[in-house]
Design goal:
Length: 346
C-alpha cells in the first residue's frame, strides 16, 4: 500500500483504430480548404464573355421588365413561356458557374442583383411594417420569407460587393440628395441657412447636417433585416419568435439604429475632412516643404523662368536634358535668355 494513501490505477488511452472515420474527417477538411480557396478573377472581353452579357442584362431595365411581365403572364395563363434572352442568360450563367475562375463582369452583375434584392426587401419591410403594426397581421414575415427564397448569389469580389452597396444605398441617397436640394429653395429653409451665416464654421455645420440627413435617411430606408454590414455600436434586435406588432416594432427599432449610425457617420464626414485639410495645411505641408524644399530649389527667379520655358518649348526641354557641366548651363542661359543655376552638390 502506498505511503500517502490509495490511488486508482492509471488508465491507458484507447488507440485510434477507426481509420474509415478518420479518412472521412480528413477528406472533409481538405474539401473545405479547397472550397475556401479564392479563385482568380478574370475580365474576359473578346473571348468567353458570358459574364459581360450577364452584366449588360443586369443594367438593362427593359430586360427585367420583360421577364417580369412574362412571369405574370405565365401565372395568369398557366403557361411556361420564356424569352430567348432569358434562355440565353440561364445558359451563360451555367457556363460561368462551371469556370475555374471568377468572371469579373458576372460578379458585378451578381452585386447589382444582390443590391436590388436587398433594397426591395427593405422597402417591402417598410410597407408591411405599418400594416402589421395597425392590424397585428403577419404580412411582413411572409414577405421576408418570400424574398429569402428569391435571394440571388452573393458576389465574390470587392468590385461585386461595391456594386451591391452602390445599388442598395446609393439609389436612396441620390433621391434624398435631390429632395434636400429642392428643399433648400423653400423660403423657410433659405431663411434658416441665412441665419447660420457664411462663416467657415457655419458652412461646415451645414455640410455636417446635410450629410447626417442624407446618410441617416438612406440607412433607415435601405437597410434590411439581414444587412451584411455589422452595426457600429449596437447589435440589431433579434426577430426570432416574433410576429405581428412585436415583429414590426422590432424591425422599426432596428431601422432606427441603422439610421442613427448613418447620421453619425454622415455628419462626421465634413468635420473629419476639414480636420485633415487643416492638418495638412498647418503641419504636413510646412514640414515637407522644409525637408524637400532645398533639394528642389533653383536659385533666384530662375525657377519660374526656366519652368515656363521648359513647359512651352520642346527644343529647350531637349537641350536641358543634355546638360552635364557648368559650360552647358552657361550655353543654355545664353541661348534662351534665362538665368538658370542648379543647386550645388552636397
Amino acid at each position: 500500500m502506498p505511503a500517502f494513501g490509495s490511488y486508482k490505477k492509471r488508465q491507458e488511452k484507447p488507440e485510434i483504430n477507426d481509420i474509415p472515420q478518420w479518412q472521412k474527417v480528413f477528406q472533409q477538411v481538405i474539401s473545405d480548404d479547397i472550397a475556401a480557396a479564392k479563385k482568380p478573377v478574370r475580365w474576359n472581353f473578346r473571348k468567353d464573355n458570358e459574364g459581360l452579357f450577364q452584366l449588360s442584362q443586369s443594367l438593362d431595365p427593359y430586360a427585367k421588365l420583360n421577364e417580369g411581365l412574362v412571369t405574370l403572364w405565365n401565372k395568369a395563363t398557366g403557361r411556361e413561356d420564356e424569352l430567348a434572352a432569358t434562355q440565353l442568360r440561364k445558359s451563360f450563367q451555367k457556363k460561368v458557374n462551371e469556370k475555374d475562375y471568377v468572371d469579373g463582369y458576372a460578379d458585378i452583375a451578381k452585386g447589382i442583383e444582390s443590391g436590388q434584392h436587398d433594397l426591395l426587401t427593405s422597402l417591402g419591410e417598410l410597407l408591411f411594417m405599418g400594416t402589421d403594426a395597425v392590424g397585428d397581421t403577419n404580412f411582413m414575415k411572409g414577405f421576408q420569407d418570400m424574398m429569402e427564397k428569391q435571394k440571388p448569389d452573393s458576389p465574390e469580389t470587392w468590385q461585386g460587393d461595391l456594386s451591391a452597396l452602390l445599388i442598395q444605398f446609393g439609389a436612396p441617397a441620390g433621391f434624398i440628395t435631390k429632395v434636400l436640394g429642392r428643399a433648400k429653395k423653400l423660403q423657410k429653409v433659405k431663411n434658416a441657412y441665412e441665419k447660420m451665416g457664411t462663416h467657415k464654421a457655419s458652412k461646415i455645420a451645414q455640410r455636417a447636417f446635410e450629410g447626417a440627413v442624407i446618410v441617416g435617411a438612406a440607412d433607415f430606408i435601405a437597410s434590411d433585416t439581414d444587412r451584411a454590414m455589422p452595426g457600429l455600436y449596437a447589435e440589431e434586435e433579434s426577430l426570432k419568435g416574433l410576429s405581428g406588432r412585436k415583429r414590426a416594432a422590432a424591425v422599426f427599432r432596428n431601422k432606427i439604429r441603422y439610421g442613427t449610425e448613418g447620421a453619425i457617420v454622415g455628419g462626421l464626414f465634413p468635420i473629419v475632412a476639414k480636420g485633415l485639410q487643416l492638418l495638412y495645411k498647418n503641419i504636413a505641408r510646412p514640414v515637407t516643404g522644409a525637408v524637400a524644399g532645398p533639394a528642389l530649389t533653383v536659385a533666384g527667379k530662375s525657377l519660374s523662368g526656366a519652368a515656363k520655358l521648359l513647359a512651352n518649348s520642346a527644343e529647350a526641354l531637349e537641350d536641358f536634358a543634355m546638360i552635364k557641366t557648368a559650360q552647358d548651363i552657361a550655353r543654355f542661359n545664353r541661348k534662351y535668355g534665362v538665368d538658370l543655376t542648379l543647386p550645388a552638390e552636397a
